[in-house]
Amino acid sequence: MAARIPIPKDEDLDPEILEYITKVREAGIAVNLSNMLLNAPASIKEFNATGGTILFKSEFDARKREIAVLRIAHITKAAYEWHHHHIFGKAVGVTDEEITKIAVDGPVTRLDEEGNLLCRIADEITFDIRLSDEALAMALDKYGPRQTTELILCCCWFNLVSRFLESTGIEIEDPNN
């Protein structure tokens, strides 16, 4: 599937944005997402910076984060998000068996107790918008206020990302990688 919105040509970009996107492309991470964001030049840097804080500066454990993100990618049918976070998840220790158990219709019940909770939180935020009092209490008990807030923010962020990806039709850079 081709992108649903055309990507701006480099020669049409402001020099500062061209310099920025050149660095992003050289880094090679989620390039097509950033290319699409060139259509919103006032937002691209801040969008990537916010995603970077969630991925790289959060106190919340990366492996646990990726379980939640993979669940969101699955239930929102965001192939680009699934592709990239399948790679990220495996890099931080999410197993193939766990990934299979995350990618189910209906509630996730075959992971360990914590994995099921992470998927429940991802499901509730995605489907219901508001996290239930029970799931929130469980998260606060397990992770405390800071990490619970970071988990909720992560789930909200990757719902935003999946909706952007699917609405714009961003293609996976190399589906074989």
Task: Write up what this structure looks like.
The protein has 177 residues and is an all-alpha fold. It has eight helices and no strands. Helix 4 (62-75) packs antiparallel against helix 5. It is globular. The model has no long low-confidence stretch (mean pLDDT 96).
What's this entry about, in short?
The protein has 177 residues and is an all-alpha fold. Helices cover 68% and strands 0% of the residues.
Shape: globular
**Would you state the CATH class of the largest domain?**
Mainly Alpha
**What structural class do the secondary elements suggest?**
mainly alpha
Uncertain stretches: none
**What is the total domain count?**
2
Look up the CATH topology of the largest domain: AhpD-like
Q: Which H/E pattern describes the elements? A: HHHHHHHH
Which architecture of the largest domain would the CATH scheme give at its second level?
A: Up-down Bundle
What is the count of DSSP helices, taking H or I runs of 4+ residues? 8
Number of strands: 0
Report helical residue fraction.
Answer: 55-70%
- Report the sheet with the most strands, covering strand number, pairing sense and barrel closure: none
- Using the CA coordinates, give the radius of gyration: 17 Å
Alpha carbon gap, first and last residue: 17 Å
Strand composition percent: under 5%
Q: What's the mean pLDDT score?
A: 96
CATH superfamily of the largest domain: AhpD-like
